[in-house]
Amino acid sequence: MLNNNTILAGVELMIEFNKQILRLLPYLILVSLIISLGAIFIYTPPMYDGAGTLLNESFNIFFIHLPIALISYFAFMLVFVSSILYLHTFNNKWDKFAASSAEIGAIFAFLVLLTGSIWANDVWGWYWVWEPRLTTSLVLFLVYVGYIMVRQSVDEPEKGARLSAIFGIVGFISVPLSFFSIRLWRSVHPVMFGDTFYGTTGGGIGGIEIIVTLFINLITFFLLFVGLLIFRYDNEKLKSKVYTLKRKLMNN
Amino acid sequence: MFKSLNICLKDLQSEFRSKKKLNSMIIFSLLVVLIFSISFGNFIGKSSFIDSLVPGVLWVSFTFVSTIAIFQSFSDEIENGCINALKLCPAQWNAIYTGKILSTLTLLYLVQLFIIPIFALMFNYSFQGIFLLAVVVLVGTSGIVSVGVLLAAITMNTRSGELLLPVLLFPLIVPVIIPSVLATGKIISGSTFVDILDELRLLVVYVIMFYTTSRLLFEWTIQD
């Protein structure tokens, strides 16, 4: 027989269980970070390019560069989806989710620029070149900085949530642009998968070790993203709790 | 559609009575072109330099002028709370968006009709393919304005609207600016319609995308 009390007890047990997992999450991320660093520096063999010449060690940064780029696109997609859901339901949960995801996505987008610049300096000889991929990546970062600014420049939380949801949906237009930029225009940036629109095929990933290392790194950074998202979301919840308490005190 | 045309005519009528926006836009664009001609003074007369400078300079001036026009598209409505009266109109709120786009575009086209000859004069430059250029300018400007009016509606609700608008607008219109500048450069070096078809296609795709998303989202910006 299920009665209310057993259901409540079950729910409490689940919350308790989730908390246990949450407490473990940082350690899990730490372990997977160590594993992925080990994979990058120990597991992968020396890299050769198509012509057979040995690639510089700076290629190792690729295993960090590509996963965080993909995760930042993923974060912005979450912003897009939860913005639509917010405008559809006006449930504050989605707004908090979008805010957390946008902030972490912006940090990841910045790290993409940073790692890309370091790598470019070693391979091309400059930190920055004006070309489509780099420009659109910078634009992507700036769009989501703008998103955070919209949120901060409105005092009422409800209005801020509505306006930033609108901007989160419009701003998502930059994500496919950044993704397809190297396929639309001729660019120095290598294409890793898929074909370009002007004829050449992508590629450059060869060998099982490289794919495995890439996969490990992708999982690691995904875990890192999820962990940050959960903690940031909790933060938002506390923030709105503080806000309502303050309002209550001011009204008294 | 007719209702948005009515809103556009209302805007234009009040604008042509005061000519407040039009005058400031023309003077501003004149100054931008003047500053460019001062800063690139050494290159004027060297046609190879000018050829590569013109597309960028032209689109920078258009972007600046569009920012002013877009910012002012809602400033009148805010001043005396006209936006509330506009919302009471027996029309869908989307019609307000389309009407605002039409009126802003009309003003901008007028200003551009003025800038391009001044530009040619200052840079001592003769444009080839003026009709192709007109097509690119028309499509490119409508791309900037269609997303800009939505952003103006967002920023009019914020504390630092006039500061925030360019910060939000410039990154978003990059997909419009890149093909516009490329197409303008190709036209200047004597290309035909077939050569700029790729850029034009990308431009049209972005204009349609910006217009439809902004039109869908507009009603949430002016909701209280």
UniProtKB/TrEMBL annotation, chain B:
The chain crosses the membrane at residues 21-40, 52-71, 101-123, 129-151, 163-188, 200-218. GO terms for cellular component: plasma membrane. Its main location: membrane. InterPro entries: Cyt_c_biogenesis_CcmB (IPR003544), Cyt_c_CcmB_bac (IPR026031). It is a multi-pass membrane protein. GO terms for molecular function: heme transmembrane transporter activity. Keywords: Cell inner membrane, Cell membrane, Cytochrome c-type biogenesis, Membrane, Transmembrane, Transmembrane helix, Transport. GO terms for biological process: cytochrome c biosynthetic process; cytochrome complex assembly. It is found in: Cell inner membrane. Belongs to the CcmB/CycW/HelB family. Required for the export of heme to the periplasm for the biogenesis of c-type cytochromes. This is Heme exporter protein B. It comes from Methanosalsum natronophilum.
